[in-house]
Amino acid sequence: MAIEVVMPQMGQSVAEGTVLQWFKQEGERIEKDEALLTINTDKIDVEIPSPGAGILSRIRVRAGETVPVGTSLATIEGPEPDRPPAGTTPSALTPETVRSPEKTARWLSPAVLELAERQGLTPAEVHKIRGTGQGGRVTKQDILAYLAARGAGTAPSGDEDVVPFTPMRRAIAEHMVRSKQTAAHATAILEVDMTTIVEFREREKAAFAERWGSPLTFLPFIIQATVRALTKHPWLNAWVEHDRIVLKREINIGIAVALPEGLIVPVLKAAEGLTLAEIARQADDLARRAREKRLTPMEVQGGTFTVNNLGVSGILLATPILVQPQAGILGIGAVTKRPIVVDDHVAIRSLAYLCLSFDHRVIDGAMAGQFLQEMKARLEGFNPTQQ
Amino acid sequence: MEEITYLEAIRQALWEEMDQDERVFLLGEDIGAYGGAFKITKGFLEKFGEERVIDTPLAESGFVGAAIGAALMGMRPVVEMQFADFISCAFDQIVNMAAKHHYRLREPVPMVIRAPYGGRLHAGPFHSQCPEAWFVHSPGLKVVAPSTPYDAKGLLKASIRDPNPVIYCEHKYLYRHAKGEVPSGEYVLPLGEAEVKRQGSDITLITYGAMVQQGLEAADQMSAQGIEVELVDLRTLYPLDTETILASVKKTGKTLIVHEAPQVCGIGAEIAAVIAQEAFRHLDAPVMRLTAPHTPVPFSSPLEDFYLPNAAKIASKLKDLASY
């Protein structure tokens, strides 16, 4: 019987390992628990004992190669013959399928996948269930028991209500968790004086609305400044793809829109060529159609950076979660009048906080600071004549 | 309700059908004066006369051919193969004449061939075989294989009344080992309908004939261990009741198919393929089979015990599936 040697999971966060050295060559005999190879995962070297006795018939991953957890590294042929001699019958009592199923406990049967999908369980959730099947496999019964227990645990009692996930809520939940598990989130915050823009907006908003048919909010100012800052700091218009960082040439700004049932992020495409008025009208159009649920799938895809207007909800500060795979998201707090020291005098100015969450895998705090300084300079130095 | 044997149920069905329909008559070896090798037709010659209870020479191809001719002339012949093993002598008449006649000429062939089959009687390689798959594989035939006296009677009556040639597989071990209640009045069971003989949520056990008893015994053993087995008794092998099979498999996600016939290209292979095709997304384990091995039936009693599936072997296989 063949025994597979697989890259072991050496800790929850470890997704891959590197084979450092094989102690046996192909064709050599090995005993159970005899040292077979060393691997390196998460900066630690580990010696792996042989899972069974037999002949090391095949090495699939050579020294120096890095492979994901669960990858087959080698095959050991056990002592008994794999097949009965020709002419005899494979015994109906001991078929291969039941004795040696897929080795890994992570394998899910069609029935488990079907049931999980129907019940809205995520793959991550399913893998967390303790499997009672062969090799720790999660069985259909395990899922049913899990659902029953969960049902019992969350059944509505007198003092609580139980609300099942809507598909949208679940999508948000999954995306947020995945984002937190994927990126190294950090948030930098800078205060910006919006007085010039506030005054400009007060002056122009009636005429703007009349001329363009959409309101002039703070958002287009922020988007415009963001686009310009991104042009100067392309590392924030970027993401991690496998083991590389990809800087995107096109700037597509995701605009977070709060709906009663959840958050949706339509994308303002090719934002770098647009005027303030164009940004205002397109952003307003996207937001309106988001509320009317008339967005096309294309319009919520392809974002390279996201802007979230926190001020709509009166929020001053927040630490936004990145929209995967993007490396940056900017939250803008409410614009409020506050006392501030200007030229050694206390002045009343319209202030707002710019909250930049960034993927620390891609950039560091210094660059986040430079980006925010660029934003601040653009917003505070807003020049109406240049629009 | 009276409790009778499987043998008595078959006898009653024949008697009642002959009694109420004079087109029904019997042909076979030693069925008249001798009353049949298993005494099923004992007393029939006296009651119905030698024109309706015909002792034939040892020539299966000949008397099956005669039955086909009679059926085409509007009679309802019921042929007794002394042992199902001898049916191969009549194979050409069955699969080329009886099975294809309606297709070629639109004339129905309403006949039944009773095939006493199966082992566990230590009767060796020529008196123990299970030939049902050959006929399931041949378009134009229906194949029936009851497991209880109740089913045996109701399905034999249905087979006699059916306009198609029916191979009626009656298990020899069950003749005197299966007892059960049968209504005193007239009843007929539909062909082509499986029956769930035992409800369960964990594993579907699909079988027929003598393996139903063994399967029920194994299911009781499993129940004591907290594993609930649902037993589907096919009753008719063709047309196959895929609806009942799939409904059960979709419920449990795990399937064991048991038959006494050899495994290769057996009924189990067909069922497994149907399940893989129609219920793939409901499978929580490989579809398993437990059958006789691919050898002739051995004559030696210990060897035959080793050869045949039984309750203990079924339970062991069910345990494998339960822990998968």
What does it look like?
The complex is a heterodimer of chains A (387) and B (324). With 387 residues, chain A is an alpha+beta fold. Chain A has 3 domains: 1-81, OB fold (Dihydrolipoamide Acetyltransferase, E2P); 106-149, Irregular (Dihydrolipoamide Transferase); 184-386, Chloramphenicol Acetyltransferase (2-Layer Sandwich). Chain A has helices spanning 96-99, 110-118, 123-128, 140-154, 167-182, 195-212, 219-232, 276-291, 365-380, and strands at 2-6, 16-22, 29-30, 35-41, 44-49, 54-59, 66-68, 72-77, 185-193, 238-241, 244-247, 253-255, 257-259, 262-264, 267-268, 305-309, 328-332, 336-342, 345-359. In chain A, α7 (219-232) packs across α8. The longest helix of chain A is centred in the middle third of the chain and has 18 residues, at 195-212. Chain A is elongated. The model of chain A is unreliable at 81-103 (pLDDT under 50). With 324 residues, chain B is α/β, with parallel strands linked by helices. Chain B has 2 domains: 2-182, Rossmann fold (3-Layer(aba) Sandwich), CATH 3.40.50.970; 195-322, Rossmann fold (3-Layer(aba) Sandwich). Chain B is 40% helix and 20% strand. Chain B is built from 12 helices and 14 strands. In chain B, α10 links the parallel β13 and β14. In chain B, α9 (242-252) packs across α10. The N and C termini of chain B lie far apart (43 Å). Classes of the chains: A alpha+beta (387), B alpha/beta (324). Chains A and B meet through α2 of A and β14 and α12 of B.
Radius of gyration of chain A: 29 Å
In one word, what is the shape of chain B?
globular
Helix and strand sequence of chain A? EEEEEEEEHHHHHEHHEEEEEEHEEEEH
Major sheet strand order of chain B? 3-2-4-5-7-6-12
* Low-pLDDT residue intervals, each spanning 5 or more residues of chain B: none
How many domains in all of chain B? 2
Quickly give the structural class of chain A: alpha+beta
Global morphology of chain A: elongated
The proportion of strand residues of chain B reads: 15-25%
Please tally the helical runs of chain A, counting DSSP H or I stretches of 4 or more residues: 9
Largest sheet of chain A: 7 strands, mixed
Helical amount among residues of chain A, as a percent range?
A: 25-40%
User: What is the share of helical residues of chain B?
Assistant: 25-40%
Number of structurally distinct domains of chain A: 3
CATH architecture classification name of the largest domain in chain A: 2-Layer Sandwich
